[in-house]
Amino acid sequence: MTTTDTPLDKVLGAKTAKALAEHLDLHTAGDLIYHFPRRYDERGEHTDLRQLQVGEQVTVLAQVRGIGVKPMRARKGNMLEVTIGDGSGATLTCTFFNQAWRERELLRGRWGLFAGKVTEFRGKRQLNGPAYQLLKADATQDEAAEEIEEFAGALIPVYPAAQAVPTWVIAKCVRTLLDTFQPPTDPMPASVRAARNLVGIGTALREIHRPSSEAALYSAKHRLKWDEAFAVQLTLAQRRARAAAAPGTARPRVEGGLLDKFDATLPYELTEGQASVGEEIAADLARAHPMHRLLQGEVGSGKTLVSVRAMLQVVDAGGQAALLAPTEVLATQHYRGIGAQLGPLGRAGELDGDPAGTQLTLITGSLGAAARRAALAKVADGTAGIVVGTHALLYEGVDFRDLGLVVVDEQHRFGVEQRDALRAKAARPPHVLVMTATPIPRTVAMTVYGDLETSVLSQLPRGRSPIASHVVPALEKPAYLDRAWKRVREEVAAGHQAYVVCPRIGDEDSSPEKDEGESARRPPLAVTEVLPALQQEYLKGLRIEMLHGRMPPEDKDAVMRRFAAGDVDVLVATTVIEVGVDVPNSTVMIIMDADRFGVSQLHQLRGRVGRGSAPGICLLHTEAVEGSAARERLDAVASTTDGFKLSEIDLEQRREGDVLGASQSGKHSHLRLLSLLRDEKLIKEARVEAAELVGDDPDLTGHPALAASVAALVDEDRAEYLEKG
After folding, report:
1. Which string of DSSP letters, residue by residue, matches 94-158?
2. Backbone angles phi, psi at 409, to 5 degrees
3. pLDDT (tens digit per residue) in 213-233
4. Count of CB atoms within 10 A of residue 143's CB?
5. Model pLDDT for residues 77-95, shown as the tens digit of each residue
6. Of 445, 488, 438, 408, whose CA–CA distance to 597 is shortest?
7. CA distance 499 to 482
8. What is the pTM of this model?
9. What is the full DSSP assignment across 215-284?
10. In the chain, count of helices (H) and strands (E)?
């Protein structure tokens, strides 16, 4: 009998096993049995050749319609041309070089499976040297259908394949495996299977590879999706349970304390969202178990203010708060911004400080030795109630007197080990608030951030201006780009400032990007290339400076200070300005080669303008042609400022395995079928069942097979990825 742990060479032989290992990273029977088909061709419903796209790796079921051999013009030898069709009216040419012997088996009228990459030559689509498997010679259509069924079942599975291991080879291997395969003990509790009408694991694994009907295939997929969703939700439910059981320190609100004084000085009212989220966080902080809350909000929705109020509540209760930012630029911005908000309340001990206040301290890697010693002393003795910093906060030697709250800004930029390193600086587990300005679809929030309670800020503060976005198609309408530069001049003349964002710093390898079979694509525009062009031509006479991540910290800080002070008209920058940079006087942004950025990144970037009373404008420069996927993506960004709508578009265009961490761990992933877009209802149901099961059996000791299944589907690396988000 073959089990999931059986090496493939024991089942398929050394040669085939080696090919599967080298080209598809499949090593055991379990790897192969969980290598699911990506689609199915139905018996008698042949692949429509009219739908094939140039550059696509395809497998088609087709009939030989014509064949001929002719000498090659440019070199010695001959070329065999085979014309195949599938009954749709379209044909495809298969070419073989110096393989005229194939004429003896590729006879007119024979059906077969042909696999290769679609190319185009003189207006005709073709497959060069395709791999193929012919069905029985002289077969009628019915006989061919029977042979296909014998080969791959009533529904023909089409697998993720490699050139050296085409889909029908995989199908043959799976058939051989299924002959002796002993399914594992079903890990799904019988009560869940009955309540959710799920088929057994053995049935599901057989039917997904050799489905007996459409209904059986649906049931198999449904069950296997449940396994994936349930494993992730159990992992997160266990993490929530451990967090709830961990002893923490309550930090209740103190009447008449710093928070009350701060609220009294605010020149505006909190939005309804800020007030309600603030109450949720205040209640969490008052409990004797550590808070684990995700605060997601639109760009400019006021998340920082919410976090400042939470930090003041902790300081009032005798603790310290640390805000961890991903870059020095952002950490410095936070330090200045929070300092301005607190005023005298953040300058206790200074001449103009409030004696009842606290001190705000900044710790970054670029601090000088004397400044660092002074900052560390304030952190250690508790004088600094609020500490803002970068990764430098994590280093040895940064010791807190009583760390009560950790605020992590732009959570997705930090690894789990970094967050844990900061939490470990507290005597007892501190409260944790993680923030992101990248809107997250509900299912991703449930699946990736499922161990956190979630709060959403969707309301913009009063006085915040709308942002208009437009695509600037540089190749089709060059005049639009000229108009964009004129618009920058107009905004500067009106007393405002501008950003020009580039995908690249410059001086890196600038050789053209080229995929096989495609024409060369110029490298993305760089800051060091665009800056002189603007200074010497398009924006000549304006005060223009650059900002990028490779500049020394003191230079970056100096540039941002000048820009914030209004001494710079145009800042040419990379995505270093993507988050946290707050210059209300900036009203226009031009993003060069906008198609080289992701949807969420574009949304983040344009949030840097329109932060004051004047309306903002974001211009998306591109050479992508109308109708292309890249252009459609930009059109979608230009059409809405609703980050949650854009997050759905972003998810559609990314491999969902990346969202779940498959590519992050660098390991083979068994999370194959679950769709975060289409399976929201299933994920919600799995979350409910997981919470109930973990509530009764936190360590799954009564369900050993389930515990092992969870460990296989959500390995240690992936569990860490889910935790860090």
Report:
1. EEEES-GGGGGTS-TT-EEEEEEEEEEETTEEEEES-EEEE-STT--HHHHHHHHHHHH-SEEEE
2. -90, 140
3. 889 999 999 999 999 999 989
4. 13
5. 899 999 998 877 888 999 9
6. 438
7. 16
8. 0.64
9. HHHHHHHHHHHHHHHHHHHHHHHHHHHHHHHS--------TTSHHHHHHHH-SSPPPHHHHHHHHHHHHH
10. 26, 21
Q: What is the DSSP string of 36-97?
A: --SEEEETT----GGG--TT-EEEEEEEEEEEEEEE-SSSSSEEEEEEEE-SSS-EEEEEEE
Alpha carbons 383 and 341: distance in angstroms, whole number: 19
Return the H-helix or E-strand segment holding 695. helix 680-696
Residue 282 phi/psi, 5-degree rounding, is -60, -40
Which pairs count as long-range contacts for 253-257, CB under 8 Å and 24+ apart, including other chains? 253/282, 253/285, 253/286, 253/313, 253/316, 253/317, 254/313, 254/316, 254/317, 257/312, 257/313, 257/316
Q: Using a CB cutoff of 8 Å and minimum separation of 24, what contacts does 393-400 make?
A: 393/322, 393/324, 393/363, 393/422, 394/418, 394/421, 394/422, 398/363, 398/425, 399/425, 400/320, 400/322, 400/425, 400/426
Distance CA 713, CA 4 (A): 13
For 292, phi then psi, to 5°, come to: -130, 95
Instruction: Find the mean pLDDT for residues 620-624.
Output: 93
Phi then psi dihedrals of residue 205, to 5 deg? -70, -35
Question: Side chain identity at 14, as an amino acid letter?
Answer: A
User: Quick one: average pLDDT of 49-71?
Assistant: 83
Hunting for tokens 């266990």 — which residue is that?
238
Say how far apart CA 443 and CA 439 lie, in whole Å.
12
Q: Using one digit for the tens of pLDDT, what is the confidence trace for 526-568?
A: 999 999 999 999 999 999 999 998 898 889 889 988 999 999 9
User: What is the bridge-based pairing of β-strands 586-591 and 616-622?
Assistant: parallel
* CA geometry: angle 286, 424, 393, nearest 5 deg: 100
Question: Quick one: pLDDT band at residue 317, thresholds 50, 70, 90?
Answer: very high
Does 513 score more than 60 pLDDT? no
pLDDT bin (cut points 50, 70, 90) of residue 664 is: very low
Residues 6+ apart with CB under 8 A from 590: 472, 484, 485, 488, 498, 499, 500, 501, 618, 619, 621
The first and second tokens of residue 130, run together, are 């395709």
pLDDT-derived band at 239 (thresholds 50, 70, 90) equals confident
